[in-house]
Amino acid sequence: MPLCDPAEMTRISMRIAEDGKMTFVDARLSQLLGLSPDQLIGRFWWQVVHPSDEQSLQDAFITMMTRDQQMRLNCRIRSASDYRPCTITAYKFLNPFNDQFEFVVATHHILSGDEEAWIPTTTEPGPAYVPPSADYSSQQDWRPQDPSRDSSSWTTWDPQAYPQHS
């Protein structure tokens, strides 16, 4: 039962239990990474990535589980011979009848040589975003005033003046 579109040959889907262990791994794992699903089922999800990416994936998993938000992470995933760059997206699947947690659905997009160029080669954070400055010191009202919109000339609304619906 693949969770990804069969036409997407660079994507692997996994199910992750609440404790972080993999309970289902797409059979495409063999074609893309040279590993069998049996090698991963029962292991912690963060054990499938490069050792320097393990903590990032574990932290993202914990955040996703506690804050009910989806996650997206760029990392390197283990293959039979080395590590391949990949983008992981994951979300919690809740039972639609009782809103109880069932499992995490994780999609691993294995990047080709062309796609991996956009992944930063360093783990250092990039420059912080600085919003453009604006001058808020002006005493003028931010809305243009329309003299015809003077609220003192408005009539008050009286709900008793309208007949009730029957």
TrEMBL record:
<feature type="compositionally biased region" description="Polar residues">
    <location>
        <begin position="150"/>
        <end position="166"/>
    </location>
</feature>
<feature type="region of interest" description="Disordered">
    <location>
        <begin position="121"/>
        <end position="166"/>
    </location>
</feature>
<protein>
    <submittedName>
        <fullName>Uncharacterized protein</fullName>
    </submittedName>
</protein>
<dbReference type="InterPro" id="IPR000014">
    <property type="entry name" value="PAS"/>
</dbReference>
<dbReference type="InterPro" id="IPR050933">
    <property type="entry name" value="Circadian_TF"/>
</dbReference>
<dbReference type="Pfam" id="PF14598">
    <property type="entry name" value="PAS_11"/>
</dbReference>
<dbReference type="InterPro" id="IPR035965">
    <property type="entry name" value="PAS-like_dom_sf"/>
</dbReference>
